[in-house]
Amino acid sequence: MQTSHIYPGAYPLNAYITIKGCSEAIEFYKKAFGATERGRLLIPNGLIGHAEILIEGSLLMMADENIEWGNKSPETIGGNPMTFGLYVEDVDAVFQKALDAGGTVVMAIEDMFYGDRVGKVMDPFGYKWMITTHKEDMSFEEMQKRFDKMLCE
């Protein structure tokens, strides 16, 4: 059997994040999003050099902050401009689980003009999560009409 050019369980595009407290973050993601851990590689000082979790079937790779390797966490750099988009079957239930696990509300859950029900949570490690359940299919033209209407209100 020939080896694929894509790592087993990965997609052509995957997120790889740096976290101060990677082991604790894995536990948070398990509680908040039902993540399952695929494995971790430890460096001699006990920190995680590489770890992999699955959330809703998607691979998220991560490592502890390691300044010597050039890996800095959101805490060290003073924030993070990115947001993870996570589609789930029940946004209300998962949003509450994320809060119960230690996340904080960035945006309360709302039904959005583009057909999704959405809420945003900040995890304790500096990453934002846009938790979403898709409710209604529509064209970009319909989304634009609804967007225009929203902007005019």
Could you give a short description of this structure?
It contains 4 helices and 8 strands, in the order βαβββαβαβββα. It has 153 residues and is of the alpha/beta class. The protein has one domain: 2,3-Dihydroxybiphenyl 1,2-Dioxygenase, domain 1.
Describe the protein.
With 153 residues, the protein is an alpha/beta fold. It has one domain: 2,3-Dihydroxybiphenyl 1,2-Dioxygenase, domain 1 (Roll), CATH 3.10.180. The chain is 25% helix and 35% strand. It contains four helices and eight strands; from the N terminus they run E-H-E-E-E-H-E-H-E-E-E-H. The chain has helices at 22-33, 74-77, 91-100, 140-152, and strands at residues 15-19, 36-42, 48-55, 58-64, 83-87, 104-111, 116-122, 128-134. Strand 7 (116-122) and strand 8 (128-134) form a beta hairpin. Helix 1 packs antiparallel against helix 3. The longest helix has 13 residues, at 140-152. The termini are far apart.
